[in-house]
């Protein structure tokens, strides 16, 4: 596994947002947790509001905004999974 892994969805070369795959597991987990919980909290707030009325364009833009931290969290979880699988194989 390369030391620095670019975040998914960023197609620029050279990439500027990277995950340090050699960071301690607790740091990787904390960053994934923060991103995923942030998205979850926003979605829960929307889900429990009965009076929200939005058009399709607003919902589309909003979903694109939320996918960024969610994807980052999934990328971090992927690195954690690689670490754990490598430990099991040893």
Question: What is the topological layout?
Answer:
Layout: E1 4-6, E2 18-20, H1 25-47, H2 56-89
Antiparallel strand pairs: 1-2
Helix pairs in contact: 1-2
Defining traits:
90 residues; mainly alpha; elongated
**What is the count of structural domains?**
1
The residue-averaged pLDDT reads 88
* Rg, Å, rounded: 16 Å
The counted number of beta strands is: 2
Share of residues in helices: 55-70%
Q: Provide the spatial order of strands within the biggest beta sheet.
A: 1-2
Which overall shape is indicated by the principal axes computed on the Cα atoms? elongated
User: What is the helix tally?
Assistant: 2
The rounded distance between the terminal residues' Cα atoms is 15 Å
Largest sheet: 2 strands, antiparallel
Q: DSSP strand (E) fraction?
A: 5-15%
Structural class: mainly alpha
Order of helices and strands: EEHH
Low-confidence stretches: none
Account of the 3D structure:
The protein has helices spanning 25-47, 56-89, and strands at residues 4-6, 18-20. The protein is mainly alpha-helical. The chain has one domain (22-89). A two-stranded antiparallel ribbon has the order 1-2. The chain is elongated and about 55 Å long. The model has no long low-confidence stretch (mean pLDDT 88).
